[in-house]
Amino acid sequence: MSNGSFPHSRAELLVCFCRLQFPLIGLPPGKGEHHLLRTFDLHRAKADPNIDWDRYLDRLYPLDWFVASACLEGDVRAWDVLFASRAGRTDVMLLDALRARAVRLYPRDDERQDEAVQEFWGMLFAAERPGSLPILARYDGQRPLVPWLIRVFQNWHVSQLRKHSGTHALPEDDIALPLPTQQTDDRWRDVFSSSVREWIETLTEDEALLLGLRLRHRLSQREVATLLQVHEGTMSRRTDQLRERCLEHLQKRLLEAGWVGDDLFELVRGEMLHLLLDDPRLSADNLARILSSRGKQMPAATQAG
To answer: How far apart are the C-alpha atoms of 219 and 152, rounded to whole Å?
Structure first.
């Protein structure tokens, strides 16, 4: 099937399937095909110019695509579904996941954290500036919607922070650009994700605590050493050992699965942080429990993160 040969019958079945799953949401007549054509062209222009309709539809996350498309059409019930979406293995609501990232981006600034999340909701439907696309209009349906939104939220605010610090901000098109697909397609992300979770299960409580304090609560190496009453040099060695063990484990599992990528940089950069932060062993509650069992508690200034 060529790029230009639109599969009308398959498109109709896809929209019918989505309507069965979300009976209260409905795209107006003809809008299903319109949004499929739009997101297909979007993905082809940004990520994979050689993709055909069969491959595009095989990789499509239909329910996520359907909800995003209905939101763009102004369907209030679709927005309700999006607001109630869950993120990560800890099953937190999307709004809470965004708030948690805002806390890490703007520590100790409650007002800016709230503004960051509210601004983002507005940008989902309305373009930030004339000539640009709303965020939801940049979603191509080729990855799960909620993790993609969280990634876009993170990228946009990192770009703003860079701009204000005088360093180069991300180009607007890169804010929502999908990760490269040549080696980071769904198969490899799945293998990578399961390998990360498998590695997390090998952590001792001390190692989980160290990792959680550094990543979730963003404590410096010196702050962690002080809190745990361990020499900073010892903490540095433990951190290095954790990193090396993790990369060794991930590389071994990926090679066993047939990985032929040059390195793990793209997967680690794009997938690692949210997998670690979404794991229950590194949740704020579990870290607090481990600290409590050692007769310690989180410094007051970091408890909100």
So the answer is: 24
Report the C-alpha gap between 240 and 246 in whole angstroms.
10
Would you give the DSSP letter of residue 281? G
Residue 221: partners with Cβ closer than 8 Å, 6 or more residues away = 214, 232, 235, 236, 239
For the chain, report the end-to-end CA distance as a whole number of angstroms: 50
> So what's the pLDDT on residue 90?
47
pLDDT category, 305, cuts 50, 70, 90? very low
Burial label, 60 (beta-carbon count in 10 A; 0-12, 13-18, 19+): buried
Pairwise CA distance, residues 160 & 225, whole Å = 32
H or E stretch covering 92: strand 92-93
DSSP symbols for 32-88: HHHHHHHHHHHHHHHT-TT--HHHHHHH--HHHHHHHHHHHTT-HHHHHHHHT-EET
Q: Whats the size of the chain, residue-wise?
A: 305
Residue pair 146/87 in contact by the 8 Å Cβ criterion: yes
pTM, two decimals, is 0.55
Q: Where are the domains of the chain?
A: 1-178, 186-302
Asked if residue 55 has pLDDT above 70, the reply is yes
At residue 262, does pLDDT exceed 70? no
Q: What are the tens digits of pLDDT across the range 268-297? A: 766 788 788 888 898 888 999 999 998 888
Q: Which residues contact 80 (CB under 8 A, 6 or more apart)?
A: none
pLDDT digits (tens, 9 = 90+) for 63-90: 999 999 999 999 999 998 988 887 654 4
Q: Both tokens of residue 209?
A: 């605590």
